[in-house]
Amino acid sequence: MSPYPEYLYPWQSSPPAPPLPPHPFPQQPVPAHQHVPGRHSDLRKLRSAYRRLRRVASLTALGYFTLFLLLSGLAPGLMGSELPGGLNTGLLLGLCQLPVTLVAIAVYEQSARHRVDPLTENLRRQGLGRRAAR
């Protein structure tokens, strides 16, 4: 069970939405010059927040791996230097790859929960409000 009840894992499905009550007034057409909430600027904000989230997580994990590869190829003396405990620098940096990737995943999830999910929830609420207005 998730520690966050509002968060669903990818293999879980959300319960069906409750039926919408009939609206007492018919939907009024929106003039072309009037801003419809959630139309463009909110979607743009959501896309840019998600894009920034993907870039940070990807560059963290791939950047560390690229640094490891570059050091392996360009500085073999540094990577082969002995450390206390019988490890060399290359092996230690290779073993640190997994924790760095796990930290990138944790930062991705936390950032998504605090930045992307509120924007998505706001758009979802606005969409349900428009649907109820019909």
From TrEMBL:
Domain of life: Bacteria
Biased composition (Pro residues): 18-29
InterPro entries associated with the record: DUF485
Listed transmembrane segments: 56-75, 87-108
UniProt keywords, alphabetically: Membrane, Transmembrane, Transmembrane helix
Region (Disordered): 18-41
Protein name: DUF485 domain-containing protein
Organism: Streptomyces flavidovirens
